[in-house]
Amino acid sequence: MTDADTVPLVAAALPEGDRSLLLVDDDRPFLLRLSRALEQRGFAVRTAESVAEGLAAIKAEAPAFAVVDMRLADGNGLDVIESLQRRRADARVVVLTGYGNIATAVTAVKLGAIDYLAKPADADEVIAALMRAPGEKAEPPENPMSADRVRWEHIQRVYELCERNVSETARRLSMHRRTLQRILAKRAPR
């Protein structure tokens, strides 16, 4: 299949001519960097740093595209996805998260997300996910996370869910408290 063969599929799957995009993330430097990159690629970007701001932006004008962080300071990005899908069924949503797991990925897709990307995702990955034709499979990553990084991400996720309580995190992970403290003190593996 050539690139020319895929163009009609992509065009049919996209909201006709509408390049409005809502970007919802509470990591301000990441939000600004991704926003600029998406604007340079032709999107009309609006940003929100919380669930409340995202819901208000959708109420004002439902965008054709959205990129939503799963975990936000005031709640869950799934609420934003659900609201957008109610207001605009043809909207294409990509979920970003630093704490991915299968259950949340399945829930996000059931609510209408078309893809689920792990942070840090760059603008090209986000656009590829937004523009992918229905049924088209994503390319496998060239540099996937190492097993050590996946383990570290899981430990960080549980630590955050336990409200940064080392003892509770160690108990839930069936790990000695001192071992966990040493892991938390180190930098993230590549």
From TrEMBL:
<keyword id="KW-0902">Two-component regulatory system</keyword>
<keyword id="KW-0804">Transcription</keyword>
<dbReference type="InterPro" id="IPR047772">
    <property type="entry name" value="ActR_PrrA_rreg"/>
</dbReference>
<keyword id="KW-0805">Transcription regulation</keyword>
<dbReference type="GO" id="GO:0000976">
    <property type="term" value="F:transcription cis-regulatory region binding"/>
</dbReference>
<feature type="modified residue" description="4-aspartylphosphate">
    <location>
        <position position="69"/>
    </location>
</feature>
<keyword id="KW-0238">DNA-binding</keyword>
<dbReference type="InterPro" id="IPR039420">
    <property type="entry name" value="WalR-like"/>
</dbReference>
<dbReference type="GO" id="GO:0000156">
    <property type="term" value="F:phosphorelay response regulator activity"/>
</dbReference>
<keyword id="KW-0597">Phosphoprotein</keyword>
<dbReference type="InterPro" id="IPR001789">
    <property type="entry name" value="Sig_transdc_resp-reg_receiver"/>
</dbReference>
<dbReference type="GO" id="GO:0005829">
    <property type="term" value="C:cytosol"/>
</dbReference>
<dbReference type="Pfam" id="PF00072">
    <property type="entry name" value="Response_reg"/>
</dbReference>
<protein>
    <submittedName>
        <fullName>DNA-binding response regulator</fullName>
    </submittedName>
</protein>
<feature type="domain" description="Response regulatory">
    <location>
        <begin position="20"/>
        <end position="134"/>
    </location>
</feature>
<dbReference type="GO" id="GO:0032993">
    <property type="term" value="C:protein-DNA complex"/>
</dbReference>
<dbReference type="GO" id="GO:0006355">
    <property type="term" value="P:regulation of DNA-templated transcription"/>
</dbReference>
<dbReference type="InterPro" id="IPR011006">
    <property type="entry name" value="CheY-like_superfamily"/>
</dbReference>
